[in-house]
Structures are given as C-alpha cells and as structure tokens.
Amino acid sequence: MKKILGAILLAVFFCILTSAINAQRKSQFGKVCGDPTAACRNRENFQPYELPFEYGKNAVITQSQLFYAIILKSIRLNADDSNCANAIPERDRTDAQILFPHNMVFVMRCWESGQNSYTNVADHVSFIGVYAGTTPAQANAFLKTVKATGKFNRATLRRTRVQINGT
C-alpha cells in the first residue's frame, strides 16, 4: 500500500513539475510583431526602428521566438562603436519600409541597455533588416521578393531572436 501511495505521489509531483516547466517555456519567448500594420500588444514600448515583440509584465530580460530576418545591409562599426548612432540613417529604414509595408523593417544601431539587440549577429556590426517569417519557406520566398526590387542584391537570410536586456 505504501509503495502504491508513494508511486501516486511521485507521479503527481512529476505532472505538476512538467506543467510548470511547459508553462514557463511557453511564456519565455514572445511572439514577434512582424507586420507593422497589425495589432501588437507591446508596440508602444519600442522605438520605430526596433522590431517589437510581445512579452510578459515586469519583464527585464526577455527574448522573442525564433524568426527569419533578411539583412538588407550591414556595416562594421569602429572598435569603440563611436560610429554606431549614424551607421544606418533612419531615412534608409523608412525608405525600405515603404517597399515592404507588411514586413517590419528594423535597424540594429548601438547596443544599449533597454534597447533591442539580436542573436546570431557579430559584435560591432550595425544592420538594417526586414522580418521574413518564422519558417524557411516563408523566408526564402520573401528573400526572392526583396531581391526582385533590384535594391538589395547582397541581401542575406538570418535566423535570429530579438532580445531586450533592461538591467
């Protein structure tokens, strides 16, 4: 009897533990707001040049779900990042946004606490990118669209996450 009761308690414990871990995983990575014309719960917390994503309340360090971005242009920064603020002008972003009205165009200029940064990106690099979807098929199809404009022949595909470290 004691063995059965122990086994039942152990099974209940593992069910609770598994549920807690899965709930934490689901809430850990926020949905990217890749279409600038669609509603986004946290959009007002981001600068116009940042790729917004949904995240929980009181989040200080948070990341988005994985997604694909097309890097339209990148620039190597000075070793001290002294040229990061002017590396990619806002006009370049807004011009690109006009070309892709349903895919958010975003820029990584300087890394500062509380602002977006992106995974799978080299240090001391500034870039302008455009949201390309969550699957390889979506991303590759959109890459063809981007290259068809004739303006971004060196565009490349990158799988990344957007993240915020507000500490």
Detailed description of the structure:
The chain is α+β, with helices and mostly antiparallel strands and 167 residues long. The chain folds into 2 domains: 1-28; 43-165, no CATH class. The protein has helices spanning 2-28, 90-99, 136-148, and strands at 29-30, 61-64, 67-76, 105-108, 116-118, 125-133, 156-160, 162-165. The N and C termini lie far apart (52 Å).
Compact overview of the structure:
The protein has 167 residues and is α+β, with helices and mostly antiparallel strands.
Q: How much strand?
A: 15-25%
Shape call: globular
The overall number of domains is 2
What count of helical segments does DSSP give?
3
Report low-confidence residues grouped into runs of 5 or more.
Answer: 9-27
Following the backbone from N to C, one meets helices and strands in this order, namely HEEEHEEEHEE
* Rg (CA only): 20 Å
The largest sheet is: 4 strands, mixed
